[in-house]
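Morning!

This is the sequence you dropped in the shared folder:
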Amino acid sequence: MTNAAAYWKANLRLMTGCLIVWFAVSFVFGILLKDALNHIQIAGYPLGFWFAQQGSMYIFVALIFYYAIRMTTLDRKYKVEE
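The structure's back. Tokens below.
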């Protein structure tokens, strides 16, 4: 496998993982499991509501930082940094 193909495969694997987490937090926890999660309270608010309103935003910001750090690592590993 060439260096470019290995880099692209690693990049796609990283993006796929981030998209799966994004989908799980926003759709599964925020919509599908909302009723089940609402039985758990965080700071007086139902957990399903918290995921839909606050938690998903925190996770999205964390994903942005995670993606940036991992891409920097991949760029260095495959010697394609700017």
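Headline: Residues 3-77 form one domain.

More detail when I'm at my desk.
O.
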